[in-house]
Specification:
The complex is a heterodimer. Chain A is mostly helical. Chain A has one domain: Helix Hairpins. Chain A contains five helices and no strands. By secondary structure, chain B is mostly helical. Chain B is built from three helices and no strands. In chain B, helix 1 runs antiparallel to helix 2 and helix 2 runs antiparallel to helix 3. Chain B is flat. The termini of chain B are far apart. The chains are: A mainly alpha, B mainly alpha. Chains A and B meet through helix 2, helix 3 and helix 4 of A and helix 1, helix 2 and helix 3 of B.
């Protein structure tokens, strides 16, 4: 059992990172801290997805030696890392930065209205004023 | 993939994640988050995903940190937790 856990150490660390992010999103009171937690959560998932494409003894997925002219040679797939997760996660990174930008804009609006970024203080203000 | 390097980088990433959440100064937390993104970028280069590493270095560590710093400078710098 212990051997099984140690042999898959990278997956355990990804899960720990994901749980750190989830805890920050739910447990922290400051909105910027919540956003940092969301970033950590997203990049942990992206890390897990990219790591599924790794092969032992393989190299970067760029063809070498298959130049112009004779283009019908067989490519040994086992020698190259699977590039499909990379391409999918490239999109996910860009989406994550767009989400962060919108969230920060909303954050600035919240600060202008309530003059604080702590969740409990905002809830108290809303309760007191009845808005 | 060298497993010793992989483990050390993963531990650095973990330390940066915990540090970004425990520091009470928000500007410091954001800069630690930038360091986290850079370690992530090195980790992806080590995994052979060079295109993802490029994007992470430019978009995640670069633009992300700039956006965060701009937002923190427009709002409050201290955090209660």
């Amino acid at each position: 059992m212990l051997e099984y856990i140690i042999s898959k150490y990278n997956f355990w660390i990804y899960v720990i990172l994901m749980m750190i992010g989830l805890y920050a999103m739910m447990g922290k009171r400051n909105f910027v801290k919540k956003l940092i937690g969301m970033n950590i959560f997203q990049s942990a998932i992206i890390l897990f997805f990219v790591s599924t494409g790794v092969k032992a003894g393989a190299t970067v997925p760029i063809l070498s030696g298959h130049g112009h002219g004779h283009g019908h040679e067989l490519i040994e797939v086992a020698k190259y890392i699977n590039p499909l997760p990379h391409v999918l996660m490239l999109t996910a990174i860009v989406v994550s930065i767009a989400t962060t930008g919108v969230a920060l804009a909303v954050l600035i609006l919240i600060y202008r209205r309530y003059n604080t970024l702590e969740e409990d203080e905002i809830l108290k203000i809303r309760k007191d004023t009845g808005v | 993939m060298i497993w010793q390097l992989d483990l050390i980088l993963l531990l650095f990433v973990l330390i940066c994640a915990i540090g970004a959440l425990t520091v009470k100064d928000l500007l410091g937390a954001v800069i630690i988050l930038g360091a986290y993104s850079f370690f992530m970028c090195i980790l992806w280069t080590e995994m052979g995903a060079v295109d993802v590493a490029f994007t992470e270095a430019a978009v995640g560590a670069g633009i992300g940190t700039v956006l965060f710093i701009a937002a923190v400078s427009k709002t409050k710098r201290r955090s209660k937790d």
